[in-house]
Amino acid sequence: MLQIYIRSITYREPREVKEFHTGAWMRLEDPTDEELIQASETLGVQIDTLRDALDPYETPRLEVEPEGMYIFIRYPDGDSTLPMLVVIAKNGILTVTKEKNPLIQKFADGKIDMYTTQKARFLLLILSEVNRRFTVALSKIRKEVNRKRVHPDKMSSKDIIDFVSYESTLNDFLDSFIPQQAVLNRILASKSADVREDDHDLIEDLILSTNQLIETSRSAIKTMVNIRSAYTAISTEKLNQVLRWLTALTVIFSIPLGITGFYGMNVLLPGKEYEHAASIIAVCIFAVMVLFFFIFIKKKWL
Question: Which range marks the domain in which residue 256 is found?
Answer without folding.
Answer: 236-298
